């Protein structure tokens, strides 16, 4: 994982998703929304036929785990146990190989890759990780030397920034999971291991691209772990899975699964790709996100939540039992109001974090508004629904003005592919910046929800008080390339 200074932490084997910012006015993007010039940042994709189906996010995921059935996968394996899918057909192996090759990394070195930010060179010696990174830009000759002489593993961060087919795959997977999807490539020479035994806080799908990799998986010491950690040999016990991944194979295991991997002797090298997702996507994370606004809304109607706490409570000199009962009563009140539908749970920060940091659509034609401007008589539909979130939040344009609830329509159409999952932060943007979205009065929420839920809808049917308001809403969405005239 990366901190803001660009240094590497211990978590390098499996991709860690970017840390959620605890400070609400910090964001991870730059002000430049332009996509990179193909000659500067892309590697030409091979014309290898794809065994994956890109018709929809669901089709893509189903083809990724074929011949496993989606329902069986989520009922028996997701967050429960590992799965190894062996692929014996040459077409899948050929396609996997085209996703990333050693020659791709060598050509990318000419484009200004840097250690730590783009590449890590690591090896496992006597159960300990050793980092062999240099300073500054990466040279292909130095990487080759590390592979041959030091038997080091090369970890390349976020290849979807450069490889179009990985962009295409990960964008669809982000739509399917509704969560960020990162990736890393690992190139490991024969008879060597890159990292010690550890576990991660992400769901991991491993695609074996070239060669073979020997995986040992162990029962979690912390099921569904919420952080990365190295594990000691004494704690892990015997492996639950002993797997040789071959080109075209897929291996899945849940977060918290203890694991280690090495390239067997006699195999020239192994290249595998990790696709990782669902970091900080638990019920606990959702509760932390919705609780502040939930408590604020509840306090408006429940006087007991506005009563003062006991004197000297902050000095830890108050009666603990009565305090616990009072807090428990307040939580029960909120829980009852949620269950009865009298309080709404609004996820705000998680939605913003996802939509502002995910990949833009692979189809760049979606950035261009449709030719016809919508009018009252038209039928319309939202486009790119999987790239849109609607949030209800307080808005405060100036510090000396009172806050009010507003509706924000945020989208990822203008996100930067080249910075996806790189963990950089920018403090220049305000929390309620709408440079990638729109802001409407709370009265527009129902109309926006109509558009979100319907396949198509007449502009005249929008639940707004005037024809002018209906037209202004659809034109605003159209101008952001979020709406089509059917």
Folded structure, characterized:
Strand 16 (388-395) and strand 17 (404-411) form a beta hairpin. 35% of the residues are buried. This protein has an 8-stranded antiparallel β-sheet. Strands 6-13-9-11 form a 4-stranded antiparallel β-sheet, with no helix packed on it. With 486 residues, the protein is an alpha+beta fold. The protein has 13 helices and 20 strands. The longest helix is centred in the last third of the chain and has 21 residues, at 320-340. The two termini are 45 Å apart. The protein folds into 3 domains: 57-277, Jelly Rolls, CATH 2.60.120.650; 283-308 and 321-340, no CATH class; 359-417 and 435-485, Outer Surface Protein A, domain 3 (Alpha-Beta Complex). Helix content is 28%, strand content 21%. It has helices at 38-41, 57-64, 70-76, 90-99, 102-108, 140-148, 164-177, 233-236, 283-301, 320-340, 349-357, 445-453, 467-479; strands at 83-85, 119-125, 128-131, 153-157, 181-189, 192-193, 198-199, 203-210, 212-218, 229-230, 241-246, 250-253, 258-263, 269-277, 379-382, 388-395, 404-411, 437-441, 457-458, 483-485. Belongs to the ROX family. MINA53 subfamily. It is found in: Nucleus, Nucleolus. This is Bifunctional lysine-specific demethylase and histidyl-hydroxylase.
Please provide a brief summary of the model.
By secondary structure, this protein is an alpha+beta fold.
Number of structural units classed as domains: 3
Biggest sheet strand line-up: 1-12-8-14-5-4-2-3
Cα-based radius of gyration, to the nearest Å: 25 Å
Given this structure, which CATH class of the largest domain is correct? Mainly Beta
Q: How would you characterize the largest beta sheet?
A: 8 strands, antiparallel
Measure the end-to-end span. Answer: 45 Å
Poorly predicted sequence stretches spanning 5 or more consecutive residues? 1-41, 425-432
Q: Please give the share of residues in helix.
A: 25-40%
According to CATH, the homologous superfamily of the largest domain is: Cupin
Number of helices: 13
CATH topology tier name of the largest domain: Jelly Rolls
The total beta strand count reads 20
Shape: globular
Label the structural class. Answer: alpha+beta
Strand content is: 15-25%
Average pLDDT, all residues: 87
Q: Give the CATH architecture of the largest domain.
A: Sandwich
